Amino acid sequence: MSTTPLLETRSLSFRFGKRPILHDVNLLVEPGSIYGFLGPNGAGKSTTMRLLLGLLRPAAGSVHLFGHNLAQHRVALLNRVGALIENPSLYDHLTGRENVEATRRLRGVAASRTAEVLALVGLSDNAHRPAREYSLGMRQRLGLAIALLSDPDLLLLDEPTNGLDPNGIIEMRELLRELREQHGKTIVVSSHLIGEIEKVATHVGVIQLGSLVFQGSLRELQQLQTGRARLVLETASADTCRNLLPRLLTDAVATAPGTLWLQWVSNQHTAEVAAALVAAGQPLYGLRLEQPSLEDTFLHLTEAKPELVK
Ligand SMILES: Nc1ncnc2c1ncn2[C@@H]1O[C@H](COP(=O)(O)OP(=O)(O)OP(=O)(O)O)[C@@H](O)[C@H]1O
Q: What residue ranges define each of the domains in the chain, with the CATH number in brackets?
């Protein structure tokens, strides 16, 4: 069964003046997902978010929200989107509740929503305090409350945990999970930290130098990580082993006179390599599996050329 993506970009490109910033970006966000939009600083995440919100105009390509072209139905489509772009602009002298109220009136949203959104982000008990007394985490949650006023189907959050302490990061993560699981929101959340995204995202897009270098489910990213596992083999002479076992060791790389690295395939293959070495009369001093971390895989992706996009 195929569903219409909630958000899609088609060959989206952007330039600042003559400088190309985004190249042919094809994002695909399924309804009900938390899409982690990952990339190092300067990769183009904020620019993409601004294009998704119609705040910048593409040099080429298009943005589609809920199956419709943003350029043609801007107001109607953006009514269904809530956004938090970096730090929310708040009135520091007003209370949390008054900050929400100010936007609620402006947008003509029902009065009952103020208490609802404050409760949703866990700020009911602090709603009477002026925003200047709020921690950064509370400010982010207040910004999110304001973004939730019109009960949007899609939330676009640009680095919402930037600068938060570990507690604030956990609270934000739990809030995103709750918004998806209990309120059916689809969320796009950008970050430069894979460690944060892997804990909350169902899908991941990785951007590097303005190009999407990976897009898929978190599971597919983890599979890519497993595929990068390698066997490290310690023996007396790497060259002798390679000569004796050309079929098994053609692609092995000698990193030291007695050390070979080869791509990990399966447990069976590992056992076959070990048995073959011993049968060939070669000493086996060590055999270990090295699994790169997801962080390594992310770094690998963001160092690689953009050929991995599906
Ligand atoms: N107003 C601007 N004029 C010219 N270049 C810009 C402007 N804003 C951003 N850029 C450039 O566009 C590129 C992408 O920036 P962008 O802010 O989208 O990246 P990012 O992935 O969000 O990174 P960060 O997390 O550091 O904001 C960068 O090279 C940046 O220098």
A: 7-80+152-224 (3.40.50.300), 230-290 (3.30.70)
DSSP 258: T
The Cα–Cα gap between 135 and 142 comes to 10
Whole-number Å distance, alpha carbon 46 to ligand 1 midpoint, is: 7
ipTM computed for the complex: 0.94
Residues 190-223 pLDDT 10s: 999 888 899 999 999 999 999 999 999 998 988 8
| Ligand 1 in reach of 47 Cβ (< 6 A) | yes
Instruction: Provide the whole-model pTM.
Output: 0.84
C-alpha span between 113 and 168 (Å, rounded)? 24
Q: Does the C-beta of 205 come closer than 6 Å to ligand 1? A: no
Element holding 224 (H helix, E strand) = helix 218-226
Residue 44: pLDDT over 90: yes
- Measuring CA to CA, how many Å separate 284 from each of 36, 171, 196, 275? 43, 49, 40, 10
Of all protein residues, whose CA lies closest to atom 31 belonging to ligand 1?
42
